[in-house]
Design brief:
Layout: H1 3-10, H2 15-34, H3 37-66, H4 75-79, H5 86-111, H6 116-135, H7 138-158, H8 160-184
Helix pairs in contact: 2-7
Subcellular location: Endoplasmic reticulum membrane
Protein name: Reticulon
InterPro entries: Reticulon, RTN1-4
Length: 193
């Protein structure tokens, strides 16, 4: 799936496909709030297996009644190769490794206070996340992220002018406040880049 397909999915270009993906994802996450991941995976596997076994038996009975020899109903899928291409695995594992190494470097920089302003911002973020963590568990945040990912882009697309206007106002206010704080606290001025 390339970036254009993801954008089309999030902007609801094909309502049927997006609805299926969004609904399946939301159903899976809501199922995880009730049952453990092992139970959810087992139930999904059992449901899929029940459908395929029933279909295979149904086709076998039809072949016996009609005295036809169509063969296995899933033959085309059984003959199809299902393996991950080695070059694709290397490509994505290299990308993941680069991101992990960059994250480790950034965390080292933040925790060892290379830049005081960035470390204080990180501390404030961690402090805010303690309150978020006390209100929501991780699964609830993932559900909210999924709903946001499928609703925010379309809302932004329809109301872009108003949203951009108010975001610019908020951004200017934040810059003013940060500038005032940096001017009053010694050692908080950012280095020239």
């Amino acid at each position: 799936m390339d970036a254009k397909q993801v954008v089309d999915l999030l902007y609801w270009r094909d309502v049927k496909t997006t609805g299926v993906v969004f609904g399946a994802g939301l159903l899976l996450l809501l199922s995880l709030t009730v049952c453990s991941i092992v139970s959810v995976c087992s139930y999904i596997g059992l449901a899929l297996l029940s459908v395929t076994i029933c279909f295979r038996i149904y086709k076998g009975i039809l072949q016996a009644i009609q005295k036809s020899d169509e063969g296995h109903p899933f033959k085309q899928y059984l003959d199809h190769e299902v393996a991950l291409p080695e070059d694709m695995v290397h490509k994505y594992s290299d990308l993941a490794l680069a991101k992990i190494n960059k994250t480790i470097g950034d965390l080292r920089r933040l925790f060892l206070v290379e830049d005081l302003v960035d470390s204080i911002k990180f501390a404030v973020l961690m402090w805010i996340l303690t309150y978020v963590g006390s209100l929501f568990n991780g699964l609830t945040l993932i559900i909210l992220a999924l709903v946001g990912a499928f609703s925010c882009p379309i809302v932004y697309e329809k109301h872009q002018a108003q949203i951009d206007h108010y975001l610019a106002l908020v951004n200017n206010q934040v810059k003013d406040i940060v500038g005032k704080v940096q001017a009053k606290v010694p050692g908080m001025k950012r280095k020239a880049e």
